[in-house]
UniProtKB/TrEMBL annotation:
Classification lineage: Eukaryota, Viridiplantae, Streptophyta, Embryophyta, Tracheophyta
Record-annotated DUF3700 domain positions: 2-162
InterPro entries reported in the protein's UniProt record: DUF3700, TSJT1-like
Pfam families for the chain: DUF3700 (PF12481)
Top-level taxon of the source organism: Eukaryota
UniProt-recorded name of the protein: DUF3700 domain-containing protein
Length: 162
């Protein structure tokens, strides 16, 4: 999974700036180059979605759909979510948010985000503290130009790049 956002859309945390890049004579890669290299390096079932110059999301489904490390991509009402990992309490969360039993983690994250956005002044950490599991997600609301991202518990193959 890869998410690239325009600098005008989000300010990355200082921790994501590598000290090596300050002393390196190598020119940093452009986001388009990183994006294309990611897609080329993945299997033929990878797909991507571009939002003009604002954002780009790329997703590679798991090779083994029954693996412990689940990956989901979901889009609903101009809100897109890439989710990796699992929520141990997904069933109770789906019930709490009025979602069907068949809703996956990415669908839940979109609904939780929409609840935050549309129905009340709840801080994001209030929703996140209810999530139990090992997961990471990136959500992009292309209409509002909003990013909602979280990482709970280390996932070996999950890295955020802003």
């Amino acid at each position: 999974m890869l998410a690239i956002f325009n600098k005008g859309l989000v300010n990355p945390p200082q921790e994501l700036h590598s000290p090596a890049s300050l002393s390196s004579s190598r020119k940093p890669k452009h986001p388009e180059e990183i994006f294309n290299e990611f897609l080329i390096s993945q299997s033929s079932n990878a797909f991507s979605i571009n939002f003009g110059n604002a954002a780009a999301l790329a997703y590679v489904p798991p090779e083994n759909p029954n693996s412990v490390s689940q990956r989901w991509f979901c889009g609903l009402h101009n809100v897109y979510c890439m989710f990796m990992g699992s929520l141990n309490n997904l069933s109770s969360l789906n019930k709490q948010y009025g979602l069907s039993k068949g809703s996956n983690e990415a669908m839940f994250v979109i609904e939780a985000y929409r609840t935050l956005r549309d129905r009340g002044p709840y801080p994001a950490h209030q929703v996140l503290r209810d999530l139990d599991g090992s997961f990471g997600f990136v959500l992009y609301d292309c209409k509002a130009g909003t990013i909602f991202a979280a990482l709970a518990s280390p996932l070996n193959s999950f890295v955020f790049s802003l």
